[in-house]
């Protein structure tokens, strides 16, 4: 089964205006594979301008790192899905472990965000993954399966196909520790099996599952070579044009 290959860069809270535009411009000048969807999840303040820079590029797309779970209203400082949509954003990260931890985002909030984005025809990049303690206990598969059931299983067959899943073991994010290709494959395969039991093989075979957690120019090739790894969600290494380009060319 041929699934869409995707590399998404999560710039997190990095880059000034000038640096962000320069990185985006540099990426447009690099040689990127035409069969890989590359999504730049920039800070929301830069989405509009970076979106214009990548607008006519065959591989590059603009994404955001978060949106509020309510449509609009008195939520000072927040950014809505409609605002992002109105500046051309198609992809939004939902459920990143940093937001689950620091903003105490719950499954109920994530479900609202996913539904809101989908109601606007936007695509959530849904993150799941286990903390180190759970991995050490050996219950990581059960932990991630529960996240998927609690946060995605309300979707019907059509809607679940409009989700990009990113498996991000929390112990590997920004730590320099990467899941081995075998660990990544094991979990991606388990995630696909969970989806298959609920939605059937035809549907589960279509959903792209990305790996995230200290993926870099040196290890992307072996990670992406795993049969159920359809690409990566890249943090630190997405901030350097050369490294990110190498990762995008690692299939
Ligand atoms: C992330 O935050 O989504 C991520 C994968 O970060 P890093 O690549 O820096 O570990």
Backbone CA Rg:
17 Å
> Tell me about the biggest sheet?
8 strands, parallel, barrel
**How many E-type strands?**
8
Molecules bound to protein: phosphoenolpyruvate
Number of domains: 1
User: What does the overall shape look like?
Assistant: globular
**Mean model confidence by pLDDT:** 97
Helix content: 40-55%
Per CATH, the superfamily is Aldolase class I
Could you tell me how far the N terminus lies from the C terminus, measured between alpha carbons in angstroms? 15 Å
The level-1 CATH class = Alpha Beta
**What is the correct CATH architecture?**
Alpha-Beta Barrel
Strand order of the largest sheet: 1-2-3-4-5-6-7-8
Q: Could you say what the CATH topology is called?
A: TIM Barrel
Q: Which percent range describes the beta-strand content?
A: 15-25%
| Topology pattern, helix = H, strand = E | EHEHEHEHHEHHHEHHEHEH
Secondary structure tally, helices: 12
Could you name the ranges where pLDDT drops below 50 across 5 or more consecutive residues? none
Assign the structural class, choosing from mainly alpha, mainly beta, alpha/beta, alpha+beta, or little secondary structure.
alpha/beta
Name the features.
single chain; 251 residues; alpha/beta; TIM Barrel; eight-stranded parallel barrel; 12 helices; 8 strands; binds phosphoenolpyruvate
Could you walk me through the main structural features you see in this protein, from its secondary elements to its overall organization?
The structure is a single chain. By secondary structure, this protein is α/β, with parallel strands linked by helices. It has one domain (5-248): TIM Barrel. It has twelve helices and eight strands. The chain has an eight-stranded parallel barrel with strand order 1-2-3-4-5-6-7-8, surrounded by six helices. Helix 1 (17-28) links the parallel strand 1 and strand 2. The mean pLDDT is 97. Phosphoenolpyruvate binds at residues 10, 168, 173-174, 212-215, 233-237.
């Amino acid at each position: 089964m041929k699934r869409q290959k995707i590399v998404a860069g999560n710039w997190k809270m990095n880059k000034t205006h000038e640096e962000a535009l320069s990185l985006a411009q540099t990426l447009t000048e690099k040689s990127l594979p035409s069969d890989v969807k590359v999504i730049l999840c920039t800070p929301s303040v830069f989405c509009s301008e970076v979106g214009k820079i990548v607008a006519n590029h065959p591989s590059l797309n603009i994404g955001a790192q978060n949106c509020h779970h309510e449509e609009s209203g008195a939520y000072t400082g927040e950014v809505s899905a409609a605002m992002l949509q109105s500046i051309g954003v198609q992809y939004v990260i939902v459920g990143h472990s940093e937001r689950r931890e620091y903003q105490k985002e719950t499954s109920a909030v994530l479900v609202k965000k996913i539904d809101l984005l989908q109601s606007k025809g936007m695509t959530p990049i849904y993150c799941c993954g286990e903390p180190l303690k759970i991995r050490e206990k050996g219950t990581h598969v059960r932990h991630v399966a529960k996240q998927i059931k609690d946060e995605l299983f309300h979707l019907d067959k059509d809607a679940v196909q409009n989700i990009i899943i990113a498996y991000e073991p929390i112990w590997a994010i920004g730590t320099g520790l990467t899941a081995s290709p075998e660990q990544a494959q094991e979990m991606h395969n388990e995630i696909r099996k969970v989806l298959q039991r609920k939605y059937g093989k035809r549907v589960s075979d279509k959903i792209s599952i990305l790996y995230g957690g200290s993926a870099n120019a040196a290890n992307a090739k072996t990670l992406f070579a795993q049969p159920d790894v359809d690409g990566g969600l890249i943090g630190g290494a997405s901030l350097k044009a050369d490294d990110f380009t190498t990762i995008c060319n690692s299939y």
